[in-house]
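Case study B.
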Amino acid sequence: MTADPATPDSPRKDLVALRGVKLTLASAAGPVDILRGVDMSLQPGEAVGIVGPSGSGKSTMMSIIAGLEQPTGGSVTVAGHDLAALDEDGLALFRRRHVGIVFQSFHLIPTMTALENVAVPLELAGEARAFERAAEALTQVGLDHRLGHYPAQMSGGEQQRVALARAFVGEPDLILADEPTGNLDGETGRAIIDALFAIRAEKNTALLLITHEARLASRCDRVLRMADGLLMADTGAMAAQ
Amino acid sequence: MTVQDWRLAWRFAWREARNGLRGFRVFVACLALGVFAIAAVGSLSSSIVDGLEQNARAIMGGDIEVGQTAQNIPAEATQWLAGKAEAVSLARELRAMARGTGEDPQRTIVELKAIDNPYPLYGAMVLASGQPLERALEARGGVYGIVVEPELLTRIGVAVGDPIALGDGVYELRDVIAHEPDRVANAFSLGPRVMMSDAAFATTGLGREGSLIRFRHRVKLAPGADYAAFTEALDAAFPDALWRVRNATDAQPSIRRFIDRLAVFLTLAGVTALTVGGIGVGIAVQAYLSGKTATIATLKCLGARGSTIFLTYMIQIGLLATVGIAVGLGFGILSPFVGLALYAEALPVPTEAGIYAAPLLLAVAFGVLTALAFSVWPLARAREVAPAALFRDIVASTRRWPRPSYVLLTALAAAALIALAVFATGQPSIARWMVVGIVAALIGFRLTASGIVALVKRLPRVRRTTLRLALANMVRPGAPTASIVVALGVGLTVLVTTALVQGNIAQQIAGRIPAVAPSFFFIDIQPQQAAAFDETVKAAPGFQAMERVPNLRGRLVKLNGTPLDEFDVPPQMRWVRRAEFGATYAADAPAKNRIVDGAWWPADYSGPPLISVEDYVVRDLGLKVGDTMTFNILGREVTATIANLREIDWADFGINFIVMFAPGTLENAPQTHLGTAAFEPAQEEEAYRRVTTAFPNVSTVRVREVIETASQLLGRIATAANGTAAITIAAGILVLVGAVAAGHRRRVYDAVILKVLGATRRDVLKAYILEFLMLGVITAAVAAALGTLAAWLIITRVMQAEWLFLPISTIGTAAAGIAIVTALGYAGTWVALSQRPAPVLRTE
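Model:
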């Protein structure tokens, strides 16, 4: 059985610490290096933007931080947990308590209403007031009138706001957002980003944001550029520009 | 798994289920069909067995029956029975010839039964006119009445009121039998029943000593009397008795055994259908879960544990399985009521339609285990969905093996299914071989499917686009090739096997047996008639050959001086304790038997009794040449030394005796003769007329009619076998429909892309039809081979008969299979072809 991830055994300053993280996948054409030694750290409450071309390894790095993928080399520590030491159920508990994820394609569960979708992480955590808290979260993103609607009955913007509420409702330490505006028009996308940053600021949640848009990334505290499986530069300066 | 896991899983399962569980019709239908087949067979056979048990006393005619052939039981025994019982009744049964009395009357063999006044002790005798039996049989103006089964009227062209001659007397046909309580289906009854009073029987002259009369003394005991105690007291009073005592608890053991065995075959056929249906269950679960990979991945990202996900979907599948099993069970419960309401008349035994818990529970157990065995695997794979894929928007289920615990669970469910099939059906020896066959077929077809895929992958690039498309469709990931091949293959194999076994038996009956069998059997030729009888037969037109031998009845009582009861008789030879042997004597060895040990006696032998015995009887009793066997022949004990062993081919349809005596022992015992005669087919009728006219007391059996009766009986069994083969095929078709439906979205997309690229509907259709045609041909070919092998084993090993290959049956069945696959494949893909490209592309 896994040690309880809620009580870190070695408290550290970094919320996320990647040290020499590598990922190599086997393929018919020979091994493919996806990540080639990534070092990165993220402080609690910090917002970091990651930019880079398609296939550079951004999403893979994010799924490693979420404990969804195992690196083939290096170490990953998030919220004091060495992810390599956790088994599948331990990783599930870890995500439940520390990580919220926002996807480009929303990934709401089509058979559940907006309220039920947001309540799922709380239900999984055994929270007794799951539905009250989910309703509050939906009110916070301006969807108090849509609680009983199914994803198919909502616009893309509304669906992504449900996804935002779902990511934040468990009050995680870290939000991972993967191109959250990629499937939305400019106006709606801006509204979503405004909401994302507003809630993050209110709850002091750390954010790792993958995006193509430099303008969006610039709203973060730091911007990292990724290319060919390596973090090229920690351009802290970008935020200042 | 914690309570929390279960609670969450229930909640999530309910949220998914309330949106409707589409695509599960095939799943529910597959389970329902298999459960129905097992529940229906069990309920029907229970109804028949229960009917036999509830009416056991009426079927046997009393609480106890003391029966003996060729000689009545001694008078002291009759008195003993009368003193101990509430009532006794004697029925004499024999075969006799009935004829009209006009010019050149028609004749037929009948099953004659002479009854006394108390008859029947149990149950009611019903005549068509409603008059009491006693009145119908009384003497009026010196003429006794008889009642007959309706078949006699058409056989010899008589009507109620006509005179009928039997033996030396003439009787008036007074009524037609509507129901005879103790006439249980004698499958090989040689003719219609004729019933008369014992006073009338005395005037027929057929009751001569040594004639093949069965004397049945029925005893009615006080309610609740102890059968065993009565039998023990009877045995103690008459330790040397020859009779056979049966009580109502073992009435008709042969019918029961037959029903039990038939039920095992049909139940296992139901299990085969359910197993084939299980493939459909697996396909439906797989298809449903593959549409759920994004949801599963999302739940995992939100922190759901694998066990929560497994439970969530297992609960949904479990609910659907419950529906399928309940539907099958519902129809199964109805089946005896509906089936017996429609066909009760056709069944030779009384039935008690009812709800029988045991077969229903068995059906549920089979259903649950099938659902488990076929859905745990896809469910366990679903929990392995990689959530990281959500970041790339390519959500696909991984081809990972389930965790060991789920592999074990699947293996346990499969093992339990096999164990249940072998042991719960009550006939493990039969069930074992059928299960081996089913498992071998499943593995055989799975290997065939893998073989097809491996072969197609190795083929060089094909130039023709349609063929290339068809081949690609067969081997692409997620193709239903394996499911279609296995499901339809097993169904077709069952069909080929039943068609060939049936065809072989039918050929034996229609062709081989009549070629070697004589035209007639003659029973009860009196010794003083023998010479005249031979002359008449040989002088009849078209005469080819005849055989006539003395026939005596006896029972084996001692082996090497040890009473049979104390002798350690091996189980397969237990029948010798109860059976009455037919015995004969002869100076010369029968030409058709081969002496395998010892030597035949000289033709002019005179000396101590010698016998010649069938080899396997001696061997199985652990005896050898030189040992002695003691028989009780019509009350006299005869001890004889085994002089030689003979090998007998019972299929030659001539007269054969297990025991033959040397001359000098039995000549003076009461006896009759048995005979056979062969005539040219065209002259048979004239020969029949001459022999039966000259010897009205000799019962003459037309072998052709016996063969026809056998074919009819076989036809009925074949109908049951075909019914179950049809259920297996139906399950196979359901699986095929399910497989085509599961691949529907994929096919629509493929068809649209191909159309966008300029393919006509004809091109795409050709590719699809070619795909299903190839699958059908390969599956049918393997099914034909496996089915032929199974049928060959059944015919040559189980039935020990000669094998005839029947290519028409095999090819016909295989062709039907190909047609089914192609037609269903065509129907399933036609819809896909009709889709317009734009809407499909927009939603992709």
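The first strand of chain A starts at residue 16 and ends at 25. The remaining cases will be described in the next quarterly update.
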